[in-house]
Amino acid sequence: MKYARLVVLGVALGAGVLAARIVMNASAPAPEPVASAPIPVEKTEILVAAKDINLGAKIAGSDMTWAAWPSNAVPRGVVTRQDNAGADEAFAGRIAKAPIYAGEPIRSERLINTDKGFMAAILPKGMRAIAVSVEAETTAGGFILPGDKVDVILTKTDEVRGVVSETILENVRVLAIDGTTAGEQDQKNLSPKRTATLELGLEQSEIVAQAQQLGTIALALRSAQDSSDDAEKTVRRRGVNFVKYGVSSQANAQ
């Protein structure tokens, strides 16, 4: 009987010790993970815009800065300090032919290096810039902005038909409204009684020049979906008779 009591006491004591150890292990702080050393990332310095640069703006040295980019994420064609350390000085004075935003890499093909005016620099080869006088009621209420595409409508008085209107050119790019080009506009729409500068070929420029003498020019704003760069460009619907070197003819707008 005494022996049985000793056995029971021993079992109880062992269970108590085991329970105490379990509690101590559960409350003990977990071992701190061993921090692994960071993997070094190779960096390359590239030339970026230090602030927003508007289309047509002349770039100053303070408009550009060098920024470290992960080498495996450097875009193709950007200017790196390793290959062209003096690019920031070389690009100073050039003209931006597209907007460049702060932090965006600067590419040489987006800059114009010329002593000519901005308008002459951005005109594609073979194209001309011609200004036409327009008013609010003939420019979609002032909502035509530089960079938009328009149709050119001539309204004139005909001896037989009276007042008639006809579309003489289609899908024409507006280069500027007065002296404001795309990127320089600081408001939603421009006020009326403005001069619109259009991008035209030589023969198309002659058509518009004479059309202004025949009547009133109106600009019809085209939908963005109907005026992409790969859409049909500047097609004349009806002929405009004009005289050149004393010979009367009808112009074709290609």
Briefly characterize the structure.
With 254 residues, this protein is of the alpha+beta class. It has helices spanning 2-27, 87-91, 118-122, 202-214, and strands at residues 43-49, 64-70, 95-96, 111-112, 127-134, 149-158, 162-177, 180-181, 194-201, 216-221, 241-244, 247-250.
Unreliable stretches, pLDDT < 50, 5 or more residues? 183-190, 237-254
Shape: elongated
What is the total tally of β strands?
12
Radius of gyration: 36 Å
Strand content range: 25-35%
Mean pLDDT score: 75
The profile of the biggest β sheet is: 6 strands, antiparallel
> Helix fraction?
10-25%
The total tally of domains equals 2
Structural class of the helix and strand makeup?
Answer: alpha+beta
Q: Report, as a whole number of angstroms, the end-to-end distance.
A: 121 Å
SSE series: HEEHEEHEEEEEHEEE
Number of helices: 4
What are the main properties of this structure?
254 residues; Type Iii Antifreeze Protein Isoform Hplc 12; two-stranded antiparallel sheet; 4 helices; disordered C terminus
Provide an overview of this structure.
The protein folds into two domains: 43-116, Type Iii Antifreeze Protein Isoform Hplc 12 (Alpha-Beta Complex), CATH 3.90.1210; 123-250, no CATH class. The longest helix has 26 residues, at 2-27. By secondary structure, the protein is α+β, with helices and mostly antiparallel strands. The chain contains four helices and twelve strands. It has helices at 2-27, 87-91, 118-122, 202-214, and strands at residues 43-49, 64-70, 95-96, 111-112, 127-134, 149-158, 162-177, 180-181, 194-201, 216-221, 241-244, 247-250. The radius of gyration is 36 Å and the shape is elongated. A hairpin with a 2-residue loop joins strand 11 (241-244) and strand 12. Mean pLDDT is 75; it is low at 183-190 and 237-254. The strands form four sheets. Strands 5, 6, 7, 8, 9 and 10 form a six-stranded antiparallel β-sheet that branches. Helices cover 19% and strands 30% of the residues.
